[in-house]
Amino acid sequence: MMRECEDHGYFRDEYCPVCGEEGKFLMSDFEVEKLGRTMAGILRHGKYDLDMDEQGFVDMRDIVSVMKAKYPKMKWIRTHHIEAMAETDPKGRYQISGADVRATYGHTIEELNLRHPVDDIPETLYYPITEDKCEEVLNEGLFPTDRAMVHLSRTYKDAMKAGSVREDGDPIILAIDTAGCIDAGIEIGRAAKTVFLCDQVPSEFIYVADEEDGDDKGGDSTGEDEDL
């Protein structure tokens, strides 16, 4: 559930993780999921055809309006509920800028020109692939498939989790030489805590990862996700 502490802001739990107070109720677990799925549909996939700038930002008031119109049981929704979703998301899926919000990754809208920070990029990132696609990628490189950009994971474990969500069975994990990519002029941006984006990865910068080497890279294992 979503609550708001008067002193410490929004949180997703029964009690504030800082002071232990119960705080003000905002949304149930069901309502958080409903809002999250609607935001993903709008911000990642252009659902309801709302006005969106080239950076993927949409006015939160427009999201509130369409939710009230489409879902009568959520007529209570306000912009601060969207702010709460963005500020408490554990994976950094959303970014607030003034009165606007955008998804940080997961887009299928090709017309966007997303800009993300390009500093502090790890020397190696990871990508999950199915066994039948592995040889093709090693020979031809990585290109976007069902999303507008290639999504890379911070750690081996992140990539394993992402691949397990999207495919049946354990994927093969590829390592990406990001230093080589950057030297070759390929821009890689930090989209979220564990997700990095680029337009493509040439085959010369891809190799099959070693699990022990991946573990040495550290980081958490929250991974990439589905549409939530």
Outline the structure in words.
- With about 230 residues, the chain is of the alpha+beta class.
- It is built from seven helices and twelve strands.
- The protein has helices spanning about 30-45, 60-70, 80-90, 130-140, 155-165, 180-185, 210-215, and strands at about 1-5, 10, 25, 60, 95, 100-105, 125-130, 150-155, 170-175, 190, 195-200, 205-210.
- Strands 2-1-3 form a three-stranded antiparallel β-sheet.
- A hairpin with a 3-residue loop joins strand 1 and strand 2 (about 10).
- The longest helix has 17 residues, at about 30-45.
- The two termini are about 15 Å apart.
Features:
228 residues; alpha+beta; 3-stranded antiparallel β-sheet; 12 strands
Strand line-up across the major sheet: 2-1-3
The average pLDDT score comes to 91
Structural shape: globular
What is the helical fraction, as a range of percent? 25-40%
Q: Mind summarizing the main beta sheet? A: 3 strands, antiparallel
Total count of helical runs of at least 4 residues: 7
Note the gap between the termini: 15 Å
Tell me the structural class.
alpha+beta
Give the low-confidence spans: 216-228
